[in-house]
Amino acid sequence: MRKLELIPLKIPAGYAITYNKFYDVEPIRNKDEDDFIENWGYFTEDLLQIVKMKIQKGNWYVPEREDKLLFDLGWYPDSDINGQYVLQLVDENWYEIKSISSRDRLIIKETLEAWMEEHQRL
What we know:
alpha+beta; 5-stranded antiparallel β-sheet; 7 strands
């Protein structure tokens, strides 16, 4: 049995990973429950959060509220074999700036990396 690995991400300077359970794994249908994922722990609503940091007086910090940008990844519906990844970029009030949905974790990875590069310059 192979060891599960986190999806390798290219994180530009100025970002903090605050939560990461984004593994390189396929969902496995549960034999006893039609729509439930057997390895459900890798397919929940809380998989990855990355925050854009700020710099003040030469020091990086994670903003508490003001001007906070958060990249949030989850699987919806939670633990459902028919679900998909949902990647969102949200502000401090959880207002959605943009989002993408896909069952393909590599599309999600590429999109996340592109969004971080784009917002690094802002």
